[in-house]
Amino acid sequence: MFAGVVSLGRPAADLADPGALRAALAPYHQPDAVDEWRSDRVVLVQHRRDADSGPQPQAGTVLAFWGRIDNRADLTRALDTTPFATDRALVEAGLRREGPDFLTRLVGDFACAAVDSGSGAVTLVRDQVGVKPLCYRAVDGGFAFATSVAALRTLRGPSPTPDPEWIACRLLGLYLDDPQRTPYREIRRVAPGTLVAWAPDTGVRTRRWHTWRDDSTWAPVREDRWVKDYRTVLDEAVRCRIPADDVIGVENSGGLDSTSILALLGGFVDRPRQQIETFGVVHAEHEPMAILSASAAAGASWNHLLTAGAGLASEESATARALRVLGHPEDHGMAGSFATFYELAAARGVRTLFSGFGGDEATTYHGSLLLTELADRGDVSGLYRNVIGNVATKPARTLKQLVWRRIVRRRHHAALHSAFKECWPWHVLRDDVVAEYDLRRRYFDAARYDAPFRTINGFLVDHLLEQTWIAARVSECTLVAGTWGIEYQWPLWDSRLVQQYLSTPSIEKYGPGSGRDLHRRAVRGTVPDVIVDRCDKGMGANLVRPHAGAPAAASPSVGTLPGPLADIVDRRRVDDSLRRARTGAPIGATSWIGTLEAQTAWLTAS
């Protein structure tokens, strides 16, 4: 993690207090090492897990680097450097050889800032999938950047302004479409796969250097080589993230994605019983058996199962901790939800935590649009092979799929649209705010999901991979887990694996009744068959009891709203929703309560 400022015409210390930057980067933990580089016009603070990266140069380009480089072999050959160089040393060598554009050759999870100590020019680069956060603010007389909004909030001078559109969107469960926007108007994010350059004479310039390639070719029949190629990249995505000597934590839900990560780790490490510990939360009746079966098959002996609602041991709430770490309420919400995992993992000596997130978002889940592709091509035999049924039922089902998918043009995902319609009357925004930001249309557009798309890759490239909530999830969890000294790893969200999935023909991605077929075939023999062959994601009856009266209990926290919220929220609707919720509410209809509480705490403290 790092933060820095470049000042024009006055000492950099007039813009930022290095001590405040350090405190914002590590409000709860002591990093392994702290670097601080200063000149009259530059202040740079960096926290590192490793203590052997060496000093910064006294002049020239000063580098702040946080992350992991996965194409080390290629870069080492190109730069003719030692293969034993640290990632940071490798990046420094590339900067000396090629300048800031070298940063766009990196593959991995990273955030970089290169500062020319002479001219003051700054280059910021963020990884392809947005695992490591990076943001910036152009201020009067300089430029500031950091891996958290919280650090930029410590700058001297005028405070940043909360963005009312962000506030309104989050109260509806929506996300801003622009990946560069943050909850503050003046603070911007470096979008995933993007380079931001700032210089005193030109200001801010932005260039997207990474885009996804929709380069798969149509194939009417399967070839085993595609499964082997996918498995090769999957293996490397897991292997490259294994720490040298740390105890490894794995989030284990008993589902296909997390079990795949666990099973591969169990085969890659020397002593899985001593090196791997799993962490799971139980909501449904069959989850404990699925979780423990997956762990037993992988050789993991230490398994920690929490029941839903388990809180932190400390008195501070997970929401308050996330607010302090991020500098704003969570955009996604999962970082606070998993805080108990992080606390328990840290107590067990875990410094690296693996997650199966990324599978549903790209690489393991979305093959069902193959049926639409086959129908559009008039491939009757292909449809016949891929519909569920027997000799008696498949002909009629094939004809139904052919006609329905070619004729019907869906506007919305039916189940999502139905749920959204049920929840819309419960929103608490003022009518003029809804109209100003076109929120009703945007709300129901979110229920379209894959409905308008005709191909698997079209849905992924043109829609899902552009969703800002994905980068919000991984980057916020990365920051919050980091306050317990934990490095998050997301192998199914590896940019190489996502691209491999996109490059694979659609015919490989779907089997009768399964949109996860490519991944299932790739891990068969490694993951237990009972998990590979599970026909759905169901885990039986929900064991978590709804807390009757919870909305009513929350009502005191929405008594007095700070100014920015009072301008957005319709108090009459708040009271009406709370009153109706006492006798029951649709799932998700009152999710605004927690959001409103977090926003109230944020705006009150700002």
From TrEMBL:
It is an enzyme of class 6 (ligase). PROSITE patterns: GATASE_TYPE_2. Keywords: Amino-acid biosynthesis, Asparagine biosynthesis, ATP-binding, Nucleotide-binding. GO terms for molecular function: asparagine synthase (glutamine-hydrolyzing) activity; ATP binding. It catalyses: L-aspartate + L-glutamine + ATP + H2O = L-asparagine + L-glutamate + AMP + diphosphate + H(+). GO terms for biological process: asparagine biosynthetic process. Residues 1-201 form the Glutamine amidotransferase type-2 domain. SUPFAM superfamilies: Adenine nucleotide alpha hydrolases-like, N-terminal nucleophile aminohydrolases (Ntn hydrolases). Pfam families: Asn_synthase, GATase_7. ATP binds at V281. Its EC number is 6.3.5.4. It comes from the Bacteria. Belongs to the asparagine synthetase family. This is asparagine synthase (glutamine-hydrolyzing). It comes from Paraconexibacter sp. AEG42_29.
